[in-house]
Design a protein that fits this description.
Aminopeptidase; Alpha-Beta Plaits; 4-stranded mixed β-sheet; about 475 residues; binds zinc ion; single chain; 6-stranded mixed β-sheet
């Protein structure tokens, strides 16, 4: 046989084998979605529940960054309101106050052998002015089928939704086997150290741990994932860490008419430039990649084929994800220069310049490792690198997906939102849950709220609102969650 014939035959054989492997992997890429039945709903009065949520929005529970300036009156008033609105919860559960305004509700289960579950929701909200809002942010207006205002999504709907669920279940005569704890901090939007931090410390002192802890983090999203036409419920099984580093440099001050070749501002700017040009290495692994195992089999044929063959196409997918900031953030520890300072006057040379860089740490990248890498990349002894501010947290451990706790959570979503697909995910931002690390191997970050990708800007933005229907579903979800874990 001629040499070229052999070469052509070899190439053809490789193509046939490759095609067969791709086809087999695609055909055996089977669904990980749990079975669904009819949508579970409960006979709650969602209009009355919406009115209570609306009333709670009127308490301006903003926690000041300067702890000496916090106005606690709205917190106290809101807590009085909760007591009045949920009489069965307050008469049947033990209610503790921790560090002034932290709330802890304990619903004792009948079986002390079973580990309790812990539900988390915070009372504080971020500030808002009237500008740009259709209805004022602290009016709690109910209009056009929505409850409007600061906290309707983040996070009063969760706190009140959980209380609604408990009130309903007590009225129905439900008795949990497993104890249920509901903990509510009051400074989540700052650091969570006064609320969640102190409540978590209380649990540690009591030696109290949990079968499962749930907090905000992820939601149900529509139209954001290519190749998927139905809503996707993301369960955050890990959370990125949080770190601020200050870069600073000093140089001779003086008049700007006779500057040196490089001032302190230039030294810091050069350091930032190096950090931006050398991002942390990206890697499609862990929770971000497990998403494709859960969603891939449900996708349109082309996407299904791609995600069934990550062994071959992984690098292509990675570079695709790296091309847009939200998906790039799932691949690596992110580097974001946020604040800079030099001289106070335009004609004065700064004797010191500084910049703050905000990092969100991937599981595996510790605070220590990040600091070491930053120093190495900058490679300039004139630049001092130090931690800035409070609230630095390591990335969380990753909660397993093969556990009873995860499967029960997953099933609860499928019960109440049968049209949605469920997947584990990595949470990019930090929440109160990070304070509870070590108190349960199963920390699941999810709120049963429906969003399109455009609507995500309502969080901490203008016109924050939740539909009365979706709020009703939130309450159904927490009733079902308690039943599925504690029946
Ligand atoms: Zn929140």
């Amino acid at each position: 046989m001629k040499k070229w014939v052999i070469v052509v035959l070899c190439i053809l054989a490789v193509i046939v084998i490759l095609g067969a492997v791709i086809a087999i992997r695609t055909m055996t890429f089977s669904s990980k979605q749990l079975p669904v039945g009819d949508k579970v709903t409960y006979n709650i009065d969602k209009n009355q529940a919406a009115q209570r949520l609306s009333d709670s929005i009127k308490f301006k529970t903003v926690f000041n960054e300067d702890i000496s300036k916090v106005d606690y009156e709205p917190f106290a008033k809101m807590q009085e309101y909760l007591k009045k609105s949920y009489p069965l919860v307050y008469s049947n559960l033990e209610v503790k106050v921790i560090n002034g305004y932290g709330l802890l509700y304990i619903w004792k289960g009948s079986d002390p052998q079973k580990k309790p579950i812990l539900l988390l929701a915070h009372q504080d909200v971020v500030p808002a002015t009237d500008e740009g809002w259709t209805y004022p942010p602290f009016s709690g207006t109910i209009a056009d089928g929505y409850i409007w205002g600061r906290g309707t999504l983040d996070d009063k709907c969760t706190l009140l939704g959980m209380l609604e669920a408990m009130e309903y279940l007590i009225k129905e005569g439900f008795q949990p086997t497993r104890s249920i704890y509901l903990a509510s901090g009051f400074d989540e939007e700052i650091t969570g150290m006064q609320g969640a931090g102190k409540i978590a410390q209380y649990f540690k002192e009591q030696g109290q741990d949990f079968e499962m802890i749930t907090d905000e983090g992820e939601v149900i999203i529509s139209g954001a994932i290519p190749g998927v036409s139905v809503p996707v419920a993301l369960i955050g099984i890990a959370e990125k860490g949080y770190l601020n580093l200050e870069l600073s440099a000093e140089s001779e001050g003086g008049h700007s008419s006779m500057p040196p070749r490089q001032t302190a501002v230039g030294i810091v700017a050069a350091a930032i430039d190096k950090l931006e040009k050398n991002p942390f290495p990206g890697n499609l692994a862990g929770p971000a990649s497990w998403m494709f195992d859960y969603l891939g089999p449900e996708m349109t044929p082309l996407y299904k084929t791609i995600f069934a063959n990550m062994w071959l196409l992984g690098p292509v997918i990675e570079s695709q994800l790296a091309s847009s900031p939200p998906t790039d953030a799932t691949l690596r520890t992110t580097t974001a220069p946020t604040m800079m300072q030099g001289s106070q006057r335009e004609n004065v040379l700064p004797s010191r310049a500084s910049a703050v860089i905000n990092f969100r740490l991937m599981p595996g990248d510790t605070i220590e490792k990040v600091m070491q890498r930053v120093i190495k990349v900058i490679d300039d002894p004139r630049v001092k690198v130090s931690q800035y501010g409070q609230g630095a947290t390591e990335a969380s451990p990753i909660s397993g997906t093969d556990t009873w706790a995860f499967k029960t959570f997953n099933q609860t979503i499928r019960d109440v939102f049968p049209e949605a697909l469920v997947t584990p995910a990595l949470v990019n931002s930090a929440s109160d849950a990070s304070r509870y690390v070590g108190l349960s191997p199963n920390i699941l970050r999810f709120l049963p709220q429906r969003f399109t990708s455009e609507e995500l800007s309502m969080l901490h933005g203008v016109n924050e609102r939740i539909s009365v229907d979706n709020y009703g579903e939130m309450i159904d979800f927490y009733i079902q969650l308690i039943k599925n874990y504690c029946q």
